[in-house]
Amino acid sequence: MTVQPIAPPAPVAFIGLGVMGAAMAANLLRAGFRLTISSRSRGKASSLEDAGAAWADTPAVAARDAACVALCLPDTSDVEAVLFGPAGVAETVQRGAVVVDFSTIAAAPTAAFAVRLARDRGAFLLDSPVSGGPAGARDGTLTCMVGGDAGAFAAAEPVLRAVGGKLTHLGPAGAGQVCKSANQLLVAATLQAVAEALALGRKAGLEPEAMRQALLGGSARSFVLENHAKRIIEGTTTPGFRAELMRKDMRLALAAARDHGVFAPATATAAQMLEALVNSGRGGMDSSALGELVAELSGLAATR
Questions:
Q1: Bridge partners, residue 142, by sequence
Q2: Which residues lie closer than 8 Å to 258 by C-beta, 6 or more apart?
Q3: Same domain, 106 and 252
Q4: Both 130 and 166 in a single domain?
Q5: CA distance 48 to 65
Q6: Could you give the number of structural domains in the chain?
Q7: For position 222, which CATH number holds?
């Protein structure tokens, strides 16, 4: 089936208005799409409604006339419920419509959802988990890692361009989720290494910020060292990305490694430390609070 390009002012539905979703929906409005929104709480929708978005009480109502339906939800079970549960997207989505799931969820169920949506409704599902955090969502510069039908990807590119700065089509349904798991395991494993390095420096009497600057000048430079290490040193635990969400993502990464028979000790260690971090009562803090836990376990006082 040929899918027509979904360009402004095409009707787009956006379901899930958390920190990321609300910012992405706002960018779709600014790009000129005719936007309908739905979420568990209408309170999160007020600013978008003021800007011109229409409210829908259920995902089914939101999806009814949409050429594209975007989702940004917490976990696999949430996506399944919004797609196939009572008053879900699959009740009304049009034949040939493209559903773009920006959530970070498990890859195998994603592939199954795509098959089911195509079989039952003649609609396409793209998995497009994103990286770039709240700032990237606000600025429209997210990295979109996309799996699914190539024709649907091409048709939905204007929608993806409204929220993302880098788009990569990686293969069939589920491929985007596998890539996102790889992204998260790299971030978490690097964060664990950075936390240990800073603890080592402190135990040896080095000034942490001077050490960070020295490391940034060499081959150890990374986004995590540049940003998360700064948060660790300053004791900033206000969440940009909550530890409990990173724990969820690392569980997904571990499952992906098991599914594909990958020897993954770094992933396993980082996942174990995220479990410990959340179990220590820090689940609502930024994931960089891992540095605080490593410092504690090293016999160091917190920096804040």
A1: 164
A2: none
A3: no
A4: yes
A5: 19
A6: 2
A7: 1.10.1040.10
CB neighbour burial string for 20-35, b if at least 16 within 10 angstroms, e if fewer: bbbbbbbbbbebebbb
Q: Is the pLDDT of residue 224 over 80?
A: yes
Task: Let me know the angle formed at the C-alpha of 144 by 142 and 146, rounded to the nearest 5 degrees.
Answer: 170
pLDDT in tens, 10-26: 999 999 999 999 999 99
Same domain, 150 and 279: no
- My answer on whether 169 and 250 are in the same domain is no
Residues 193, 130 share a domain: no
pLDDT digits over 201-213, tens only? Answer: 999 999 999 999 9
| Residue 238: HSE in the Cβ half-sphere, 13 Å Cα cutoff | 3
DSSP 277-300: HIIIIITTSBGGGHHHHHHHHTT-
Digit-coded pLDDT (tens) for 136-189: 999 999 999 999 999 999 999 999 999 999 999 999 999 999 999 999 999 999
pLDDT of residue 125: 98
**Tokens 């028979």 map to which residue?**
261
Co-location of 156 and 229 in the same domain = no
**Using 50, 70 and 90 to split pLDDT, how confident is the model at 44?**
confident
Domain co-membership, 169 together with 183: no
Instruction: Supply the residues annotated as catalytic.
Output: 180
Average pLDDT over residues 248-271: 97
The pTM for the full model equals 0.93
Among 119, 125, 143, residue whose Cα is nearest residue 80: 125
Count the residues in the chain: 304
User: What SS3 state is found at 241?
Assistant: coil
Query: What sections of 99-242 are H helices per DSSP?
Result: 107-121, 133-139, 150-163, 175-203, 208-216, 223, 229-234
What whole-number percentage of the chain has pLDDT above 70? 99
Same domain for 57 and 17?
A: yes
| Phi, psi dihedral angles at 201 (to 5 degrees) | -60, -45
